[in-house]
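Sanity check. The docking grid for 4'-deoxy-4'-aminopyridoxal-5'-phosphate depends on where the pocket ends up, so I'm generating a full predicted complex first rather than guessing from homology. Inputs follow.
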Amino acid sequence: MKRKSEKFPTAHSRKSIQASTGKFKDTMGKSLKAKDQAMIWHPFTQMKTHGDAVPIVKAKGAWLYDESGNKILDAVASWWVNTHGHSHPYIAERLAKQANELEHVIFAGFTHPPAVELAEKLLPKLPEKHQKLFFSDNGSTAVEVALKMSFQYWFNQEKPRYKVLALKDSYHGDTFGAMSVSGRTSYSNPFEPNLFDALYISSPGNTSEAEVVQQMEKILKQEKIAAFIIEPLVQGAEGMLMYSPETLDKLIAMARKNGALIIADEVMTGFGRTGTFFASDQLQNKPDIICMSKGLTGGTMALGLTSCTNEIYEVFYSNDQLKTFFHGHSFTANPLACTAALASLELFERENTMEKVAGIAELHSIFAAELKKHPSVENVRQCGSILAFDIYKAGEERNYFHSMRDTIYNYFLQKGILLRPLGNTLYILPPYCIAKEELQWLYGEVLEFLDGI
Ligand code: PMP
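Predicted complex below; grid placement will be based on this.
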């Protein structure tokens, strides 16, 4: 099927971007590739069947550059982390200065300006009742901290609760606690006997609200829940499932009646992705705990944060040593990571980043309307800067291991675009610095691909 669209790049404008990206040559980084293959085991990668890793030597703005100078548009913000663009000079400058002053110091019994300044800058952006921040290393550890904090909250009050309520089709990370409360999939099968039991309700992203509410009522009648954990508004890794703030408000109210603490895993949704600074900003019923990572440092480096209300903190604050929160990592609140986070928060203000997010959302919605008309596309959905849809061929269902996945991935890589479909779900989640012309070029390439299937 061939169609022409006025709104998206003409063959001419598309060519001009391609000309600047250069044709995707296969001369790139042979030596680096060979060494990598000999020594390195990559994440979420079947090393036998996957092609060589693409050696990237430089990145600027929304673009990655390989050894031969080929450009690749980073349309997934490098696993959803990047916000202001790669190698942002302001973050780089602040990091270099900090590296010469204080690179790291133990955080038990010690503190430092980057951690305190980050707390000063971030706490006002969180729900009012959130008054304490606990640092860790990444998204999974931010979730581990939230879970352990919740369990110990009940334990310290001598009213132990051990059950976590979660959404099916959720993803909270790869450590054991995070896996235990994530949707159970082929990924978690090898570890199943070692995971703790969680309770699940269907995701409002693929099940009617009435049914989800009914499932929840049934569980809440029978169980005392320690915590209800959610990816607010967008469930990322399990297919970019989206649902409304009104539905989530309802579910949170129900869980709260049961006494459960509410954990919002904003590892992916935080820092502007959903159109507001946090997805929780769109809720009336605010969570008690928020997990952050990815965009926290602008996507520069790893850092995890778990914020909580003073009410939770008070339950640990005691003369009793046994009420201490027994958790901590060697690199807790690393000054360099905190500096990158501080610089990134400053950039949100200096560069009016949320306006850029709004601009992306507007362009996405125009493209979404076009996609909805396409015969190979279903379930077009958008939340802020995230646009997702399912590609159907011969009526097959959404499935992470869909054979179409590799075809789509390789097709776009050859075009100089990094897109990582989740099965036959294709999504665009760009760095906020992406230019209108770059996005429109990308949309044009997506349409061309769809027209060809
Ligand atoms: N929670 C959510 C919602 C995520 O999307 C992810 C990562 N994709 C994680 C937790 C885990 O974060 P990390 O990979 O940094 O451990």
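Relevant for the grid: The radius of gyration is 22 Å.
Also worth noting: Confidence is low (pLDDT under 50) at residues 1-6.
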